[in-house]
User: Fold L-2,4-diaminobutyric acid acetyltransferase from Pseudonocardia ammonioxydans.
Amino acid sequence: MTAPEQAEPRASAPSPGADRSGDATADAAPSDDVSYEIVAPVPADGADMWRLAVESQTLDANSRYAYVLWGRDFADTSVIARRDDGLAVGYVTGYLRPQAPHTLLIWQVCVDPIARGAGLAGRMLDAAWDRAVATAGVDRMETTITPDNESSIRLFSSFARRHHTSIEREDLFGPELLGDGHEPEHLYCIGPITRSAGVHNTEGGKK
Ligand SMILES: CC(C)(COP(=O)(O)OP(=O)(O)OC[C@H]1O[C@@H](n2cnc3c(N)ncnc32)[C@H](O)[C@@H]1OP(=O)(O)O)[C@@H](O)C(=O)NCCC(=O)NCCS
Assistant:
């Protein structure tokens, strides 16, 4: 693995080489005259996901390589959002837990500050959920959140409400594992979510 590189300048056009032919999820909704396409990532999206993570100054940014790999191996449980001018403004990375393959663990949710506060994170979360339901039949979601991240707690509580299910919190990892200066990570368990309780269907088109 190579060390993280410096963030590149923002792209103003879609990532070169990004092949969208197989995308099953698309979402576009107006927000102050801006619409977003929410799709499964491809490896070429890794650079943008990494840039957004670094620029967030909140997330633990993984290596650029990790995000490229994510776009290959976890595309069915992740999404990236682009503005209609091609600028990447958000992403969700998730995976199916190997020990519980019907549980979608959401690893990171990130929205560029220019696009926050307009419901984009919620729409990306719903799109990632819908994809994982369609491809893997998931019925539970998990995520970890530090106690100081109020917006993230609100985001996932809101997801649970939309899907008519409960959200429960328990201790997961503390500084003894994560290192001094790292807030503890609480585990949030959402579900079960029945298919009939689903409120979104983003397959194959805009909503
Ligand atoms: C957390 C984050 C993804 C939210 O993105 P967003 O697009 O602004 O979120 P949404 O507009 O979809 O809002 C989702 C919910 O969170 C609430 N929320 C959003 N920002 C908030 C804030 N700063 N403070 C309190 N609540 C907030 C919204 O009110 C909404 O709740 P509601 O449905 O009950 O009204 C974004 O702030 C971000 O990228 N932060 C840095 C990275 C991070 O902390 N990610 C989460 C942990 S992985």
Notes: The first strand starts at residue 36 and ends at 39. Residues 1-31, 201-207 have pLDDT under 50 and may be disordered.
